[in-house]
Structure formats: structure tokens, C-alpha cells
Amino acid sequence: MIVPVLLVAGALGAGKTTLLNHLLAHPDGRRIAAVVNDFGAVDIDAQLLGTVTEEVISLKNGCICCSLQGDLLRTLSSVIKRDPAPDAIAIETSGISDPAEIIRNLMDPVIFKVAPLETVVTLVDPQRLRDDPEIAQDALWRSQLRAADFVLLTKSDLLDRATLDQVRAVVGRFKPQSAIFEIANGIVAPDLLFSRDMPVARTPPRQIPVTSEPFATVTWTSQAPLSLPRFQQVIGQLAPRTLRIKGILSFTEHPGQPILFQSVATRGTLAPSPVPLAEGLTAQLVLIGREGELDAAEVDKLLRGIEAA
């Protein structure tokens, strides 16, 4: 069983616990376990989240990017072995954590095989950035932004459009505008945090566009032999216009071994898939992008290019 991991980063007071509170209270049908790292002897965040769900594990009195690395990996291993196992794990870092080190640990092959890092989101309080623009010079703040697949501007309902645009411009020095989202009260569309489940295709391959504000989804399948080098070229074209891609493929270069591909923003991974393809298929892909920016016909044309002659 694969349990995807969501990593939530950001400075102190950026709104991480508010986001997790909403996610745990509205899991969109998922059973989500939360791992919380408060830097202090009393883990307030875990206590707050514990009022929403019992699936909260606290890593106390340390920072998981340094002194608690071993504890984090042991905790993930124990969570995965629970019966029933969660459908996803959300990790809330402390405000002083550098996500780059945490990501490096989560990419451990043993952990990644069963708990792949799905999404990294960094929260930014635009009001604080407006009041103290020097934050943008802080090395840790910059590292938190660079590590993110998506940046969430929290408490956006408290500021006017002009101020939000100014903040977006500052954050835009580090991330493309397509990766910046404005949220309020911790409410985030599930499609941004977790990719959709793989479709079980039983019919001849066709792309199936499905839209839901503000995202559009395209499902693509194939029965033809696939080329890995061509796939990598096409993904390079699709990545800038999609928010995430996930799927299982079989390439002629790796006969008999289904490959799991995951892409979030511009970060992509290829790994052996523990899940087989549906019978008769060589590809099952789900692509998610902003509504109006993901054209099913264009996606189909590009992906047909990976089919070997």
C-alpha cells in the first residue's frame, strides 16, 4: 500500500495549523494522519489538531530538519503499519524548519517506496510580509519558498487586491505565479494537495476531461508501446502548464516493470510501481491544471508522441 505524504512548511504564525485543522475536519473522504513538530516542550499545535481527529502524532521539543530526523522516519514507518493504514500523511513542520533537509530525508528509498512525498506547500502570511518586507531577505524564509511546490498566501480575505498583488510580486521572485495561490481560513482545494486516484480503465484509451472550479483534470490512457526518452521530453513540455501529473506506465526500455510517475509543479519522480496497470494498458495518467489552462486535445496530441512506432 502507498501512503502519500504532504509536507506543510512556513514561518511561525503563517497559518499551518489552521490549514491542517481544516484538512483534517474536511478530508474529502481520506483518512489522514497528521505528524506535528512544535519546537518546544509543550506541543500546542498537536493539542489543537487533536480536537479534530485522533490521528495526530507529535514530535516534541526539537526540529525535524535536524535533531528529530530519526524520529520522523520511525514515526512514518509506524504510521504506515497501522491497521487500518491512513490514506495520506500530513506533516506540519515547525516555523524554524528548513524543508530542504526534511525533503532529503523523505526521499530515502525505503520510505519513498511506501510513503512518497506527494506535495510540499509553504504558507506565507501576506500581512506580515507587507508590514515587514525585510522578511524577504531572510535565508530560512527563502529556503522555505524554494522548497515548495506551491506557495499559499494565507488570510487573503483580510487584505485588498493591491496589497495582495504586491505580495505576489515579492513571492514571484522565487516561484512562478502559477504556483502561488491565495487562501482564507485554511481552505485549500484537495486537488492542489493530493493527486486523484488512478482510474481503472476497462475500455479503449480515450482522454476524459473533467472540470471543477478552479481546476481541470484530464485522464489519459494508452495501449501502445511507450518510449521513456520521448515521455521525458513530453513531460518537460507539460510540466509548466500543469499543477500535477500522476500515473503508471510501462516503457519498452523496462519490459515487465510498471513505472510510477509523479510530478508536482516542476518536481517529478520515476520509480517502480507496486501497483500493476489495468489489463491491456501501457499508461494510466491523470493531469491536473488550472481551469482554462489545460486543453485535453493538446494533452492527447502531446502524449500520443510517446507511443513507439
From TrEMBL:
Q: Which GO terms describe its molecular function?
A: hydrolase activity; nucleotide binding
Q: Which domain of life is it from?
A: Bacteria
Determine if Cell division is one of this entry's keywords. no
> What catalytic activity does the UniProt entry give for this protein?
GTP + H2O = GDP + phosphate + H(+)
* Keywords noted in UniProt: Chaperone, Hydrolase, Nucleotide-binding
Under the heading PANTHER family, the entry gives: COBW DOMAIN-CONTAINING PROTEIN (PTHR13748:SF62), COBW-RELATED (PTHR13748)
Q: What is the annotated role of this protein in its UniProt record?
A: Zinc chaperone that directly transfers zinc cofactor to target proteins, thereby activating them. Zinc is transferred from the CXCC motif in the GTPase domain to the zinc binding site in target proteins in a process requiring GTP hydrolysis.
Similarity-based family: Belongs to the SIMIBI class G3E GTPase family. ZNG1 subfamily.
Q: What is this protein called?
A: Cobalamin synthesis protein CobW
